[in-house]
Design goal:
The structure holds 2 protein chains of 2 kinds. Chain A is an all-alpha fold. Chain A has helices at residues 6-29, 46-53, 55-88, 95-107, 110-123, 130-154, 158-166, 171-200, 203-208, 216-225, 230-269. Chain A starts with 5 loop residues before the first helix and ends with a helix. By secondary structure, chain B is an alpha+beta fold. Chain B is 25% helix and 33% strand. Classes of the chains: A mainly alpha, B alpha+beta. The A-B interface holds A 157, 159-160, 162-171, 178, 181-182, 260, 263-264, 267-270 and B 75-77, 96-99, 102-104, 106-110, 112-114, 123-124, 127-128, 156-157, 160-161, 164, 171-172, 175, 188. Chain B: Part of the ABC transporter complex PotABCD involved in spermidine/putrescine import. Responsible for energy coupling to the transport system.
């Protein structure tokens, strides 16, 4: 075991402080009894109680969760299909164009994605609301799902599918009985990633949402412009908690599939 | 060597089995001028081959010779570009894999990692819609057959390599297929386990009376398990025959060299003395005599004589003058293998010849040592005349 000196620990602490002190402050002040953000007046959970009475914020939270769940589900289905096409269909014509187009949203500035979607919705006279935000989120989270699932599919042993067919399983059924259960951890990881990204998003949502479909980040942002209230701190704390849970679940499920893959490979080698 | 002896004993039990010698016998599997190309390369190039019911047939060749492609054509994972694949007289070239009464054991075993051992074995029968009770009974029967009773609930990753191999075998046998295909089934096992498994496989095949087709690059394995061997090279079948035919009467330098150890003498055919061919060796000018056999070559043609090391005689003393095919040289290398020793002899013209001698007695000192001058000879019947 390697021992760490005081210097190492100091550097580590500074690094973590840089990353997490701001978040920690939000969490701490959400339990502040005072309305003033800068003055600590004792521990209280009253802002959480107030939050429960704040229908605007609660509605926004509900909208956000709905948008995140629906868009993550659609993105997982489409992203998985994209990954299958990219990994399984070999070198078809236009493969490079296809993969570039799929991955372009990853590097596209969000403002531009949001603006272009807004222009599109206006052009086709699509009333902005729940579905416009959801579709917008699908367009950019799909790429992330595709990457996660693709990397799993590349290491997938095709002879498993051949073995199933050899034993009398038709090709389509083989996908649901063999392929899908084995790559499921990657699909779950992709879904969680898409869910988190959607829950976080402010920029694209603010372009593409409409009346009645205000997401939580938009609600928080507009509330903060009128002054930071401890209620917002409470709402943010809950959001942070949700995202943290999703991220932990994502890394656990990717870790699990990685461990399983390595175990399977070790198995094949011995 | 012990393998060879046991194999001969087993071969004795089955001596009656030789449907390929019966012109009236209908083959179970027939490859009819089958060609399969990948891009510009013909992985299988006009192969015609008959395999009979209850036969244990081995496809043997180095990697890339097309043996695996030939097997995949039979399983249905590849479709031929030309020619037909027939099973029981029916053309199955266009039948997809899941509808063929043929099962395969994969080199990687391809066990479903998310299913238990029992579920893996039950997969095929379930797909065929067997009733539950019959599936369960079959799983039990198969686990017993491969000696894995009580391990049905385990997941594949909880098994050893040898156990996984057995599960793969049980799974591919569960549906009692007409033909079982085995793709390098023992490549991942160590030597000891491989030998045991080979005999077990022969036993299972004999008990179940199934037709087995095995793909392997290991000539010893092919000779141990198979009734007949098809030797492949660059997509073509070079020779098909029983292990003894392949070993004793190879039809080309490729087969002679691939199966077992051999010394090849290149020379010019000078003529015949009865059924013995007279060959003048190129490098030394020595006149060698070998049975002409089936080889048809005109005088003046380039031919080769193949001699197995165990059929050559090695002696530390000069041989009597009437001995045929006498060659001399100095011992270059000795490989002591326990049951026998192989001597690599360097001849005056710089070529090498191999001769082996069984170590029948426990001699502490070897009568032949490094750099000793030795005399070699082989009987005309021991040499095989090859024209290609």
């Amino acid at each position: 075991m390697r021992r760490f000196g005081a210097f190492h620990i100091a550097v580590l602490a500074a690094g973590f402080a840089f990353l997490y002190v701001p978040i920690l402050l939000v969490v701490i002040y959400s339990f502040n009894a005072s309305r003033l953000v800068t003055v600590w007046a004792g521990f209280s959970t009253k802002w959480y109680a107030a939050l429960l009475a704040n229908t605007q914020l609660l509605d926004a939270a509900r909208v956000s969760l709905m948008v995140a769940a629906v868009s993550a589900t659609i993105a997982t289905v489409l992203g998985t299909l994209v990954a299958i096409v990219l990994v399984r269909f070999g070198r078809f014509r236009g493969r490079l164009v296809f993969s570039s187009l799929v991955y372009a949203p990853l590097v596209m500035p969000e403002v531009i994605t949001g603006l272009s979607l807004l222009l599109l919705y206006v052009a086709v006279a699509f009333d902005r609301g729940f579905w416009t935000v959801t579709l917008a989120h699908v367009t950019f989270t799909l790429s992330f799902v595709a990457i996660v699932v693709q990397s799993r599919l590349i290491s997938f042993d095709r002879s498993l599918e051949e073995a199933a067919q050899d034993l009398g399983c038709p090709p389509a059924e083989t996908f649901f009985r063999i392929t899908l259960p084995i790559i499921l951890p990657a699909l779950i990881a992709g879904w969680l990633l898409a869910f988190t990204l959607s829950l976080d998003d402010l920029v694209i949502a603010s372009f593409t949402s409409g009346p009645g479909a205000t997401t939580l980040p938009i609600q928080i942002y507009s509330a903060v412009r009128l002054g930071v209230s401890p209620e917002i701190n409470a709402a943010s704390t809950i959001l942070i908690g949700l995202v943290t849970l999703a991220v932990i679940a994502f890394s656990l499920s990717t870790k699990r599939s990685e461990v399983e893959r390595q175990r399977a490979e070790r198995g094949a080698a011995t | 060597m012990a393998d060879v002896i046991r194999q001969q004993q087993l071969g004795g039990v089955r001596r009656e089995f030789a449907p390929w010698t019966d012109p009236a016998a209908a083959p179970l599997i027939r490859f009819d001028a089958v060609t399969k190309r990948f891009g510009d390369v013909a992985a299988v190039d006009g192969v015609s081959l008959d395999i009979y019911e209850r036969e244990f047939f081995a496809l043997l060749g180095p990697s890339g010779c097309g043996k695996t492609t030939l097997m995949r054509l039979l399983a249905g994972f590849e479709t031929p570009d030309a020619g037909r694949v027939l099973l029981g007289g029916e053309d199955i070239s266009a039948v997809p894999p899941h509808l063929r009464p043929v099962n395969m054991m994969f080199q990687s075993y391809a066990l479903f990692p998310h299913m238990s051992v029992a579920a893996n074995i039950a997969f095929g029968p379930k797909m065929d819609g067997w009733p539950r009770a019959r599936v369960d009974a079959r799983v039990g029967q198969m686990l017993k057959l491969v000696q894995l009773d009580g391990l049905g609930a385990r997941k594949p990753h909880q098994l050893s390599g040898g156990q996984r191999q057995r599960v793969a075998l049980a799974r591919s046998l569960a549906k009692s297929p007409k033909v079982l295909l085995l793709d390098e089934p023992m490549a991942a096992l160590d030597k000891k386990l491989r030998e045991e498994t080979q005999f077990e496989l022969m036993h299972i095949q004999y008990e179940l009376g199934m037709t087995f087709v095995i793909v392997t690059h290991d000539q010893e394995e092919a000779m141990t398990v198979a009734d007949r061997i098809g030797v492949m090279d660059k997509g073509r079948l070079v020779q098909v025959g029983t292990p003894a035919e392949i070993y004793e009467q190879p039809n080309s330098r490729y087969v002679a060299d691939f199966i077992g150890d051999v010394t090849l003498f290149k020379g010019t055919l000078e003529g015949r003395d009865g059924d013995v061919a007279l060959v003048r060796e190129r490098t030394s000018g020595v006149l060698l005599r070998a049975l002409a056999g089936m080889a048809d070559a005109a005088p003046g043609a380039t031919v080769w004589i193949a001699v197995r090391p165990e059929k050559a005689r090695i002696s530390p003393d000069p041989l009597p003058p009437d001995t045929p095919n006498v060659l001399s040289g100095e011992v270059f290398d000795i490989a002591y293998l326990g049951d026998l020793s192989i001597y690599k002899v360097r001849r005056p013209d710089g070529t090498f010849m191999k001769a082996s001698q069984p170590n029948a007695t426990r001699l502490v000192e070897r009568p032949i040592g490094w750099d000793d001058k030795v005399w070699l000879s082989f009987a005309p019947e021991a040499g095989v005349l090859l024209t290609r």
